[in-house]
Design goal:
TIM Barrel, 8-stranded parallel beta barrel, two-stranded antiparallel ribbon, GH
């Protein structure tokens, strides 16, 4: 069983009803450049999320590139030597070309299409999973792992929990990413996974093998689909532990997942697209079920990283009367009450409540500037507004740490954001 770990603050996990006195503050995608570290130290920042890149570290199978290893180790070492607490992103969203060429490497939807981003099947397919296991084992050896605070694991092309989103399918909502041969036939299936409970059944169809499909069938299929993500993440964490990493395993988590009422609608209509407000169903994001399961399945200290701090849902939720964007101490208890209008809540608020229900430690980050290369969408706050608002959300939701996406934007004039803006937001929201 995975217990709530030691947080970035160094304290035991605060209860949701009694949030941490103060989050730790930091940045995402840190270069660990000396001048930036100095400026961030003066601003009171103490956490760096540092990204590794699978394609650079392992351009050919069976070995790491010495130059890339030296660069990563030096980058991590500079941050550590400057007193930063470092969370390492594994960079599995940047797979080498040879991994993409492995059998059953790419995810497939019910139409046989691969994601537009070329997302790997790190959930069901044995060959890319074996390559990933080898990579993670070598990665732990390549960095000063004993000095790291945490290592991130994920399954998506963004390095987060989940299957591809609607924008990656070419068909919008209602794409399902479990139609490769391993998931459908059980051949060359990744360790710990199970084949589909309804081989050949496509969500939204009313019959399977000569009989009517029931809501219970659809619920069982979706439970298998979303539960496979938990198994995959637990497998990555187990590899890290076997390689000798004893720190926190961080789980970057997008959005709020499917809401309970929407899940009921979805399975009642045989997953034909009803009840899917934001693509959570196709991405397999069921935080209500997954977070307790992750707490049980992932070995060692586990931290959920909510990547929705001041996302577009917060913009909408705070415009309501009354506003529904801020976490409250009662959320964990009321979030599953069918009379609670959780569809009005921000993503952060609902997901935070599920982490609290599961007893999981929580950190967070903002989506970044609106645009196709980040988590921001056109109706997100501009980045300067995210900087100004996110610290207040981090405090209200009892996050142990908040890391700003992205470091580069604090140190380039074209962004319109400066370290002083970040410091001002932290100070003014206290």
């Amino acid at each position: 069983m995975a217990l709530v770990g030691v947080l970035l603050t160094g304290a035991a996990c605060p209860s949701y009803a009694a949030p941490a006195a103060e989050p730790a503050w930091g940045v995402v995608d840190s270069t660990c450049a000396p001048d930036r570290l100095a400026a961030q130290r003066d601003a009171g920042l103490t956490v760096s999320v540092v990204e590794a890149y699978w394609d650079r570290l392992q351009p050919v199978p069976g070995a790491f590139d010495p130059g890339a290893v030296a660069e990563l180790a030096a980058r991590v070492g500079r941050c550590l030597d400057a007193g930063r607490r470092v969370v390492l992103g594994t960079g599995t969203q940047y797979p080498p070309s040879w991994v993409r060429a492995l059998p059953d490497a790419l995810l497939r939807d019910q139409r046989g299409a691969a994601p537009r981003t070329g997302g790997l099947d790190l959930v069901f397919a044995a060959a890319p999973r074996a390559a990933l296991d080898d990579y993670l084992t070598r990665l732990v050896a390549a960095v000063p792992a004993a000095r790291l605070t945490g290592i991130r694991v994920g399954t998506s092309a963004a390095g987060e929990i989940g299957y591809p989103g609607p924008q990656e399918s070419g068909y919008g909502l209602n794409s399902w990413w479990a139609f490769g041969a391993p998931a459908q036939t059980g051949a060359d299936l990744a360790p710990g996974q199970a084949r589909t409970p309804l081989p050949g059944w496509v969500p939204g169809t009313a019959a399977w093998q000569g009989r009517a499909v029931t809501a219970a069938d659809a619920s069982r299929w979706f439970g298998w689909y979303s539960g496979a993500l938990v198994t995959a993440l637990a497998g990555q964490a187990t590899v890290l532990r076997a390689a000798g990493f004893a720190g926190e395993v961080h789980l970057p988590t997008a959005g709020r997942g499917v809401l309970p009422a929407d899940r009921s609608v979805a399975v009642g209509t045989l997953l034909d697209g009803h009840g899917d407000r934001d693509g959570s169903l196709g991405r397999g994001l069921d935080h209500v079920a997954a977070m307790p399961a992750l707490a049980e399945a992932v070995p060692g200290a586990v931290v959920v990283d909510l990547t929705s701090v001041d996302d577009a849902s917060a913009v909408r939720a705070r415009a309501l009367d009354p506003p529904e964007d801020l976490c409250t101490p009662e959320d964990a208890a009321t979030s599953l009450d069918p009379t609670t209008r959780v569809e009005r809540w921000s993503n952060l608020r609902f997901a935070r409540a599920q982490a609290a229900r599961a007893g999981l430690a929580v950190v967070g980050e903002n989506p970044g500037p609106p645009g196709g290369t980040t988590g921001g969408v056109p109706d997100s706050d501009p980045e300067i507004e995210q900087v100004r608002r996110a610290p207040a959300y981090a405090r209200a939701c009892g996050l142990a740490a908040f890391t700003l996406a992205f470091e580069e934007d604090l140190h380039t004039p074209r962004s319109g954001v400066t370290p002083a803006d970040y410091v001002g937001a932290i100070t003014s929201s206290a």
